[in-house]
Amino acid sequence: MHIGCHVSVRQGYTEAARIAQRLGGTCYQYFPKNPRSLQIKSFSRQDAQQCRDFCKEHGIISIAHTPYPTNLCTEGREEQAAMVASVRNDLEIADACGSIGVVVHFGQYKGNHPDPLFGYQLMIRSLNEILEGWTGNALILLENNAGQGNKMGMTLEELVQVRALINRPELVGFCFDTCHAFASGLWTGGNWEEVQKRGEELGYFTHLKAVHLNDSRYPTGSHRDRHADIGYGEIGAERIGELIRSRGVREVPLFLETPAERPGGHKSEIAFVKQLFASPQ
User: Fold this and answer.
1) pLDDT digits over 139-157, tens only?
2) Its pTM surpasses 0.85
3) What is d(CA 17, CA 28) in angstroms, rounded to the nearest whole number?
4) What is the number of structural domains in the chain?
């Protein structure tokens, strides 16, 4: 299995990979640039190449995550152009670092258009613009939503359908967030076999490239996106153990986005998840 956590790139991309390794991880996630801005980053390709080489040498997997303001359903042309340019910049950095891809939350339409499908149309348009002419290996990884706001992106059907409708679906994979799935009501904690069966029918797991492994501070169906350490939330260690050992997930890298409040922080939590994975089924 591959398990790791989110790490900072404040000291560079190569050092981020080293930090992940020191924590006992064999994978990690990072923000390729300022997580609070869509401003384009001019990055050190030498550092990125060194990061790629280090990860290859040590068998470490990485993914990037777009900044918080990223919204694939942005309506204004000027705002959308800035968002598209930002995600392309993220893809370029991720590709240079040798990462699987860039996680992007399923879009949230915040306008007043009467067509209920308008937000999805905006999202497809955005993805087509982002991926037009893209020749790198890094993928867009669409992440399921918890249901805050207009409740777009909570179902596997939405994720699969959007991927199917874009011009270059081969450049899009999925990232499954356990807290988001629990908060949305997609996964109640006791219905994983049902979720897995539906995902297999849809072809979702064929394109699943990453799992955000998070417990939830709030109950299932709450639509509240608040992460908790594994075993410290409403999902619980037993249910999370069942999920990570399941046939749809057990070979997919796991990335903690937890607050690391347990004694020993993320290093201790990574060790705990390894024990969960090795537990008898």
Assistant:
1) 999 999 999 888 999 999 9
2) yes
3) 7
4) 1
